[in-house]
Write a structure and sequence with these properties.
- By secondary structure, the protein is of the alpha/beta class.
- The relative contact order is 0.09.
- The strands form two sheets. Strands 1-2-3-4-5-6-7 form a seven-stranded mixed beta sheet. The chain has a three-stranded antiparallel beta sheet with strand order 8-9-10.
- It has four domains: 198 residues, Metal-dependent hydrolases (TIM Barrel); 66 residues, DNA polymerase, domain 1, CATH 1.10.150.650; 154 residues, Ribonuclease iii, N-terminal Endonuclease Domain, Chain A; 68 residues, Double Stranded RNA Binding Domain, CATH 3.30.160.20.
- It contains 22 helices and ten strands.
- Helix 12 packs antiparallel against helix 18, helix 14 crosses helix 18 and helix 18 runs antiparallel to helix 19.
- Helix content is 48%, strand content 11%.
Length: 520
């Protein structure tokens, strides 16, 4: 038996970013003390907890899974069972669509909170948002925080009483919550590179196993990938029913405690009420699925190219840090692809520039190509394609935000260009580069200097009669032979930070971001 089989994990934990009482740092410390092998921070409608955790130094014994929990509307004919909760795992935390959706949900939550307070105040229960904020700190307010404020101000004898008397569904201060449709929740998680899982289905008001199976099958058709089988309030009978269902329909099995800290002190992280054990192998299965080749179909769709041999694309997104942690001597990273991709990109860009601008001299063409084929430009295109969510990292690089580093994104973009060249030939690579670099090629028509972001920014600032931009190095990371620079510029009350392998590249990246901010 694998020794890890005895190690527990907890893939359902809430922090102070939503309605938990422990910070991400405190959660990680507790998980280490409990000997857990993996945890997922799955706050309600926010990635703030996961983002904060990614910035922390993780113990070597614990794997961190980025996550979120989204409430969704029930679907017919099961619209009588209560709301569904969809967990998202291995989320790409910078995904624009997901972040915008979560921002909207949080705004809806704030409006709902004010309505709840108005109802309480109308009943003579005078508590304010300031009273509740004292309990929350910087996190998002939810009903548990309002319940805590009611308890602290002696309006009720317990948090449970607050829900039973005022805040529970059908009670005087209850306000219904606006939710996403199930399809939208599943799609938004999948679109961010995540794995959508149905949380605690045993809490739904469904008595017959056949009905529960029909619901899960319906959700699978909409994009569901797994079910939270192991949960503190699931009976042994429910666990066995769910195992049969997920096995029959090729779904993932996950589990977690729904840990909230002091709000439910009897519920412990990792063990629930004392007997829960979620085996480590479930984390490994979840991780393998999140990084499975079939998940690369989303990347193929964004690239506009379908690989004849998907193994080539798999190698192109395999970072050296991942390969170094594997026990497979035959597995290769993407560095050879980077080498080839750099040459292919340079050739294709040169080819297109000569076709589009036959009157330009060699020196101008060379300057244009150097402005287009650089780390900042490649990273920006990689960002737009959400390539970071598909890169396979080792633990250390993943936890230090490798998917956000310009140098890694640029290198991976080159590797993908090489992969397309190897799979489909020169014309396939030409088509990809012409399509995704089109804005840069079009910009050339306005003049050779347009692609110099620093010069462009200075011209914009001068037109607004503002002081010229200044650039300041705020951070240097890495050894001397492989440094990454962070440079800050402040113009027109806008602060932008750029990153690059050289000071010049970092300054150009900062100028590019400042220009984007000025235009928005």
């Amino acid at each position: 038996m694998d020794y890890k089989e005895n190690i527990s994990i907890d893939l359902h934990v809430h922090s102070t970013a939503s309605d938990g009482t422990l910070t991400p740092s405190e959660i990680i410390t507790m998980a280490q003390e409990l000997g857990l092998g993996a945890i997922a921070i799955t706050d309600h409608d926010t990635l703030a907890g996961s983002k904060e955790a990614l910035g922390l130094t993780m113990p070597a014994t614990i794997e961190l899974v980025t996550g979120v929990e989204i409430s969704a509307m029930p679907i017919a004919p099961f619209d009588f069972v209560g709301s569904y909760h969809i967990l998202g795992y291995f989320i790409h935390i910078d995904d624009p669509a997901l972040n915008q959706t979560l921002d909207n949900l949080q705004q809806i939550r704030r409006v709902r909170n004010h309505k709840i307070l108005q109802r309480l105040n109308s009943m003579g229960i005078m508590i304010t948002m300031e009273d509740i904020q004292k309990e929350v700190g910087s996190g998002e307010i939810g009903r548990p925080h309002i319940a805590t404020a009611l308890f602290e101000k002696n309006f009720v004898h317990s948090i449970n009483e607050a829900f039973d008397q005022y805040l529970g569904e059908g009670k005087p201060a209850y306000v219904d919550k606006q939710r996403l449709s199930c399809r939208k929740a599943l799609q938004i998680i999948s679109g961010a590179g995540g794995v959508p899982v149905l949380a605690h289905p045993g809490l739904l008001n469904i008595e017959q196993e056949s009905d529960l199976e029909a619901l899960i099958v319906s959700l699978k058709e909409k994009g569901l990938k797994g079910v939270e089988v192991y949960y503190p309030e699931h009976s042994e009978l429910q666990v066995q029913q769910l195992l049969r269902i997920v096995s029959s329909h090729d779904l993932l099995v996950t589990g977690g405690t729904d840990f909230h800290g002091d709000l439910r002190p009897e519920l412990k992280m990792g063990i629930g009420y004392g007997a829960l054990h979620v085996p480590y192998r479930l984390f490994e299965s979840l991780r393998l699925h999140a990084h499975a080749p079939d998940n690369l179909s989303k990347l193929e769709k964004r690239l506009g190219y379908t690989f004849q041999d998907s193994r080539i694309l798999s190698e192109a997104v395999r970072h050296s840090s991942f390969v170094n942690e594997q026990a497979n001597p035959d597995m290769r990273d993407n560095e050879r692809f980077e080498f080839l991709g750099d040459a292919v990109l340079s050739l294709v860009v040169g080819h297109i520039l000569m076709e589009r601008y036959p009157d330009l001299k060699e020196g101008d063409l060379t300057r244009l190509r150097s402005n287009m084929v650089n780390e900042s430009q490649l990273a920006a295109i990689a960002h737009s394609l959400s390539i970071g969510s598909h890169i396979l990292f080792g633990k250390g690089e993943f936890l230090t935000g490798g998917h956000r580093k310009n140098s890694i994104l640029a290198d991976t973009m080159e590797a993908i260009i090489a992969a397309i060249y190897l799979d489909g030939g020169y014309q396939a690579a030409y088509t990809l580069i012409e399509g995704h670099f089109s804005a840069l090629f079009d910009a050339v028509g306005t003049g050779v200097h347009f692609l110099d972001y620093k010069s462009a920014l200075q011209e914009v600032v001068q037109l607004q009669h503002e002081p010229p931009p200044e650039y300041r190095i705020i951070e240097e990371n890495g050894p001397d032979h492989d440094k990454t620079f962070s440079v800050q510029t402040v113009v027109c009350n806008i602060q932008a930070v750029g990153k690059g392998k050289s000071k010049k590249t970092a300054e150009q990246d900062a100028a590019r971001k400042a220009l984007l901010a000025l235009k928005s």
